Amino acid sequence: MDRLEAMRILLTAVDTGSLSAASRQLRIPLATVSRRVAELEEHLRVRLVLRGTRKLTLTETGRDYVASCRRILEDLVEAERTAAGEYRQPQGELVISAPQAIGRYHVVPVLVEFLQAYPKIHARIQLSDRVVNLLEEHVDVAVRLGELPDSDIIATRIALIGRVLCASPAYLASHGAPKEPNDLVAHECITYEGYTAADRWEFRFGRTHQLVQVSSRLIVNSAEAAVVAAVAGAGIARVLSHQVAEALKSGALVQLLQAFEPAPMPASLVYPNQPHAPLKLRAFLDFATPRLRQRLGYENPPGA
To answer: DSSP H helical segments within the chain, as ranges?
Structure first.
């Protein structure tokens, strides 16, 4: 039995919640996952997991063993990084996650420059609007939008991004423009299933913020699709400022209800809090932070 492989399989099962979920994530047969966990139990002569439930349940001994496995595998990764020279010079694979629009238009160009400057680093970038788990998905650094909850991640702010309500001139000529947020219930809105509830939009009323119910005829799962639909006259869309800047500049879209928009939300580079950050990560942060701030109009942040 390969005990390290069995440990990794057990940890994946714990992190994903079940043996079958671990099988799907690792792309190995469920029978193999179950057999490896059983082999660990036979080797240790203890019960680690309780069978017969849909969600994986650890015994008390299993919880202690899983905690030890995490430390062992983390120490192994550190040893491999040290042996490979990641702490002596920037090298190795850098895994980055970013929202689709910011990633495509801002992070990728900066990453290309970075790779040209550091030839011993290679990178993999994941463009997705979902919030990834840095540790579970082995992501070195991510761009994250919105206020960050207290956690074991470190954040460096790179932008303040506003939310823009907009529609095409043709739509406004046909339907008129809303005078205040509650008028949106009488309009055709394009809602985006992204960071907030699709049909409840936040607006600022004086010193308070309120969620306003909107009427939606079209729901999309991509901000780019929302912009395209709005330009085509499908209705009123609400997207992030950088996603619609060109359409506003060209006159393809008109901004609405600016006085009611909430304060801009932060965009940050986030990465795990770790005792010894690899040089590849430190090099990327030093390289990318000022460039992303410049591209996103946040060159002189307070306290910088």
So the answer is: 3-16, 19-26, 30-44, 60-84, 100-102, 108-117, 169-175, 223-231, 241-250, 279-295
CA dihedral (212, 225, 102, 139) in degrees, to 10, reads 90
Q: Dihedrals φ, ψ of 290, to 5°? A: -65, -35
Nearest residue to 70 via CA among 24, 136, 25, 22: 136
Closest CA to 37 of 68, 61, 70, 3: 3
Q: Can you give the pTM of this predicted structure?
A: 0.61
pLDDT in tens, 172-211: 999 999 999 999 999 999 998 755 567 888 898 888 888 8
Q: List, in order of start, the domains of the chain with CATH numbers.
A: 3-84 (1.10.10.10), 92-160+265-295 (3.40.190.10), 163-260 (3.40.190.10)
What integer pLDDT is reported at residue 122 of this predicted model?
Answer: 93
